[in-house]
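Interim report to the steering committee. The following record documents the input for pyridoxal 5'-phosphate synthase (245 residues).
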Amino acid sequence: MKLVSNVITALGGAKSLRRLSSALPKTDNVKPTEKESTGLHQIQTNYKSPFLLFKDWYKDHEIPDNQIASKALTLSTANKQGQVSSRTLILRRLDEDGMVIMTDNRSRKAKDLNENPYASMVYLWVTMQDNQILARQVRVEGDVVQLPTDNMAEIFEIEPLFCKIRAHICHQGKTVDWNQMKDHHDKLHEQVENNNLQLEKPDHVVAYKIFPYTMEFYESLGQTIADRLLYVKNGNEWEIKRLAA
């Protein structure tokens, strides 16, 4: 009882405690329709392979007229000192055993991968389903291998013109003079338009493929506690674990 008395005194006495109590919302008076709903969400899948689940989610959020939105991912790399850097890229190709990206081999990410050939990817899709927010996230971790040119030729061929020109005039990450780059762009674009010039893939444009050893799926719908599934590679098989959100 002395402890209770000391707490009341610290709060300014019984009168202050009554004023504080009256200021708090009365949950008993909240109408049933105003109460927040909650629950546990569950990812619905029987897939033994994470690639099958990823393909389903990827197709669900594919936007034909906006490839950036549907294919965007965050790639994180680290150099040999352990310094981490992240950036947003585009998924160029989804294979049966890995995911392919394309970049400039003079970039920081390429230097990181040459020193430390491991990376992580994060995909995030947030949409509305039945007037509720559907949030999905996929985290990928794995070994990274640079692909030979003949294994990535078609990726560069289907690039839009501005991306091909960028590959020719941009030294990724290097300090530039904007006006000089604009002049370089305009001259090259004129050659393409007037001379029907076909831009070939420069040697510094390379592709990397991440071979996942873990893939984690996160999903929530509305005001529910999210569900997470972790796939871990064990030899040729995948072990599946359910994680708390």
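The chain has a mean pLDDT of 86. The committee is asked to note this result when reviewing the revised timeline.
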